[in-house]
Write a structure and sequence with these properties.
heterodimer, A: alpha/beta, Rossmann fold, 2 domains, 7-stranded mixed β-sheet, 5-stranded mixed β-sheet, 12 helices, B: alpha/beta, two-stranded antiparallel sheet, 38% helix, binds thiamine diphosphate
Chain lengths: 351, 250
C-alpha cells in the first residue's frame, strides 16, 4: 500500500519524527549513527529516496550538519538527527546556521552524559539547547515533545518555524521517545513550498546571492546581532507554547518537560486520586520559555516542584519565571535515570 | 574600439584584501575566466573557505556561501546533491583542506561527489599570519616552527593529490604551478578540465595549485614565485595524479 494514503501509523519516535519531516517537505537528511537514534538514519535511508529526497550517511556529525548547511543554503528543507555527543559536535555548524540565518531542523535524542555517558534517556542537554549551544550570541528555537505523536507534530512544525524565522530549530527529545512505539496521526503533506529569494541557486536573472556570518567592518556585526535580537524578541512574543493540567485548583505545581512531564502527569493523577491538589505545567517550547504563563501560575500557587531527568537545568528558567517567591523544590535523576510516577508522587507527598 | 582584454564577468569590481604577490588573485581570475568561457556563471555556486580567501563571495560574481573552517566539501555536497544541475566548487587553503577539513575532503572524494575542488597550497596558514600548515616543508620556518619544521618533532607534510589518488571515487587530480605564464595557462587548462568533468557528471576532481605567500614566507614576490618552483615542487611534484577519463584509457 502507498504510504501516503495511510493516515495513521505505528511508529517509534525516530520514525515519527522522520515522517513529520517528510510530510513537512524535508528533502535532505544527513546523519551519523549514534544510539539511541540509529533508527533515524536507517529509516531515512529508505524513506528519503522514496520521497525524491537525499539521504547521506556522513563521515561525522560535523560533516552532517555542514551538509545540512549546504542543502539549506540551496533553499531546500533539510535536517539532521543525533544524540548528545553528536549534538556537541554539531554546535559549530549550528552557530554558523544561526549567524547565516539558515533554516534547518536538528533532532536531539538526548542520552546521558557528560562524555560518552550512557545510552539511556536523559534531559541533560537542556542548557546546551536553550542557551545557544555553540559560540556567539544566538538562540535556537527548542521544541520538547512528550510522546511519539508530538515528536511527529513538532518536527512538522519545526520546518515551518525554521523557514519563517530563518533559524535553526532543535527538537529536544530523548532515548525514551526515540524508541517507544505509538500510533501517529499524520498531517497534510506539504508540496510546492515557496521559493526562497535569498537561497543560492545560481544567479540566473538576478544579482548573485551570498550567505555569510562574517562582518569585519566596525559595527556591522553589532548591527547584524541587533537584527537577530529583534527576530528573537518576535519569536518570544509569538511562538511560546505550553500546556497545563489541573492548574485551576491546586496547592502545588509540578513543572516538567518532555518524557519527564509525561511521567509527572501520571504522578499528578495518582495525587489527584488521593485528593491532593497538584497541577502540572509543561513547557513545549524550551526556548522561548513560557515565562509569563508560568509566572501567572506561580503567583497563584505557593509551591513548585521541578522534575527533570538531569541535575536541575530547567529549574533556572523556573526561577526566572517565579517573581512572587513561590517556594521551589527539585527532584531530578541524572545520568540516564528515569523516574517512575510513584517516585515523583513520593516527592509530591513530601512537600 | 574593440576590447582585446577585459576583466571576466565572473569577477566583481571589488578590491581584494590580498597582499602583493599573493597567488589567490591569479587563481580567482583563472577560475573566473574558465566559468565565463564555459558560460556557467549563472549556474555556479561556490563555497568560500576560512582562510585568506574568506571574502571570496565579494570577489566572485556568482552565488557563494561562507563555510566553517574546513567544511567546504560537506557544504558543497549538500548543495550539489539538492541542485545536481548546478556547478559547485569549493575553494580551500591547505589548513582548511588538509588539517581541520581532512575528513571532509577525503570522504567527499571517496563518495565521488560531482564537485570541483580548487586547493591552494601555500605551505602556511596565511590568514592567521604564517603558522605551520600540514603542507609546510621540512626545514621551513613558520611562526610555530621557529627552528624550522623538524619531521621527527612536527611530522611530515601531507601530499593531498597523492593521498586522494588511491580513492576510487576520484576522477581527476592535478597539481600545478602559477610561477610562469606557461604554468598559469596550464593551471587554467586543469581548472577548465575539472569543471568540464563536473558538467559531464564525471565526478570528483581537485586541482592543487602551489601558490606563493610572500608576506608569510618573508620573501619578495619574485623570490616567492621562484620558491614554489624550485623548492616546493621537490615535496609536491606537479603533474596529473589521476585522470579516470583520460583519452585512450577508458
Ligand atoms: C574552527 C576554527 N579554527 C581556527 C580558525 C582560525 N583560522 C582562520 S584561517 C586559518 C588558517 C587558514 O589557512 P589556510 O587554509 O592554509 O588558508 P590561507 O589563509 O593560507 O589561504 C585558521 C587556523 C577558525 N576560523 N576556525
Amino acid at each position: 500500500m502507498d504510504k501516503k494514503e495511510i493516515k495513521k501509523l505505528l511508529l517509534n519516535g525516530c520514525e515519527a519524527s522522520a515522517e513529520g519531516a517528510i510530510d513537512a517537505g524535508c528533502k535532505f537528511y544527513a546523519g551519523y549513527p549514534i544510539t539511541p537514534q540509529n533508527r533515524f538514519p536507517e529509516y531515512m535511508s529508505r524513506r528519503m529516496p522514496e520521497e525524491g529526497g537525499i539521504f547521506i550517511q556522513a563521515e561525522s556529525e560535523i560533516s552532517a550538519i555542514n551538509m545540512v548547511f549546504g542543502a539549506a543554503a540551496a533553499g531546500v528543507r533539510a535536517m539532521t538527527s543525533s544524540s548528545s555527543p553528536g549534538i556537541s559536535l554539531k554546535q559549530e555548524g549550528i552557530s554558523y546556521l544561526a549567524g547565516c540565518e539558515l533554516p534547518a531542523v536538528i533532532i536531539n535524542m538526548n542520552r546521558g552524559g557528560p562524555g560518552l555517558g550512557d545510552v539511556t534517556p536523559s534531559q541533560s542537554d537542556y542548557f546546551q539547547s536553550t542557551r545557544g549551544g555553540g559560540h556567539g550570541d544566538y538562540r535556537t528555537i527548542v521544541l520538547a515533545p512528550w510522546n511519539v505523536q508530538e515528536i511527529y507534530d513538532l518536527t512538522y512544525l519545526a520546518f515551518d518555524l525554521a523557514d519563517r524565522y530563518r533559524i535553526p530549530v532543535i527538537v529536544l527529545a530523548d532515548g525514551m521517545i526515540a524508541q517507544i512505539m505509538e500510533p501517529v496521526k499524520r498531517k497534510k503533506k506539504k508540496e510546492n513550498l515557496p521559493q526562497k529569494k535569498w537561497a543560492l541557486t545560481g544567479c540566473k536573472g538576478r544579482k548573485p546571492n551570498s550567505i555569510k556570518s562574517l562582518f569585519l567592518k566596525p559595527g556591522v556585526l553589532e548591527t547584524h546581532n541587533w537584527k537577530l535580537a529583534r527576530k528573537y524578541r518576535k519569536i518570544e512574543e509569538k511562538e511560546v507554547r505550553s500546556e497545563c493540567y489541573f492548574c485551576d485548583d491546586m496547592d502545588l505545581l509540578v513543572v516538567s518537560f518532555g518524557t519527564c512531564a509525561r511521567i509527572s502527569l501520571e504522578a499528578v493523577n495518582i495525587a489527584r486520586e488521593k485528593k491532593i491538589k497538584v497541577g502540572l505545567f509543561r513547557p513545549i517550547t524550551l526556548w522561548p520559555f513560557p515565562y509569563e504563563e508560568l509566572s501567572k501560575l506561580a503567583e497563584k500557587v505557593g509551591k513548585i516542584l521541578v522534575v527533570e531527568m538531569n541535575l536541575g537545568q530547567m529549574i533556572e528558567d523556573v526561577k526566572i519565571a517565579n517573581k512572587n517567591n513561590a517556594r521551589i523544590f527539585f527532584y531530578g535523576r541524572p545520568g540516564g535515570g528515569v523516574p517512575t510516577p510513584e517516585e515523583i508522587f513520593k516527592e509530591i507527598k513530601k512537600i | 574600439m574593440k576590447p582585446v582584454y577585459k576583466k571576466p564577468e565572473s569577477l566583481t569590481d571589488n578590491i581584494t584584501i590580498y597582499c602583493p604577490g599573493c597567488g589567490h588573485g591569479i587563481i580567482h581570475r583563472l577560475i573566473a575566466e574558465v566559468i565565463d568561457e564555459l558560460g556557467i556563471r549563472e549556474k555556479t555556486i561556490a563555497t568560500a573557505p576560512v582562510g585568506c580567501a574568506v571574502l571570496a563571495y565579494d570577489y566572485f560574481n556568482f552565488d557563494v556561501t561562507e563555510t566553517a573552517h574546513g567544511r567546504g566539501p560537506a557544504v558543497a555536497t549538500g548543495i550539489k546533491r539538492v541542485l545536481p544541475d548546478r556547478i559547485v566548487f569549493t575553494y580551500q587553503g591547505d589548513g582548511d583542506l588538509a588539517a581541520i577539513g581532512t575528513a571532509e575532503i577525503v570522504h567527499a572524494a571517496a563518495r565521488g561527489e560531482n564537485i570541483t575542488v580548487i586547493f591552494v597550497n601555500n605551505a602556511v596558514y596565511g590568514m592567521t599570519k604564517g603558522q605551520m600548515a600540514p603542507t609546510t616543508l621540512p626545514g621551513q620556518t613558520t611562526t610555530t616552527t621557529p627552528y624550522g619544521r623538524d619531521p621527527s618533532y612536527h611530522g611530515y607534510p601531507i601530499r593531498v593529490c597523492e593521498l586522494l589518488s588511491t580513492l576510487e571515487g576520484v576522477s581527476y587530480l592535478e597539481r600545478t604551478l602559477i610561477d610562469t605564464p606557461a604554468n598559469i595557462l596550464k593551471t587554467k587548462r586543469a581548472i577548465k578540465k575539472a569543471f568540464i568533468y563536473q558538467i559531464e557528471n564525471k565526478g570528483f576532481s581537485l586541482i592543487e595549485i602551489l601558490s606563493p605567500c610572500p608576506t608569510n614566507w618573508k620573501m619578495t614576490p619574485s623570490q616567492a614565485f621562484k620558491w614554489t618552483a624550485e623548492v616546493m615542487t621537490k615535496i609536491f611534484p606537479p603533474g596529473i595524479y589521476k585522470d579516470k577519463y583520460k583519452k585512450g584509457e577508458k
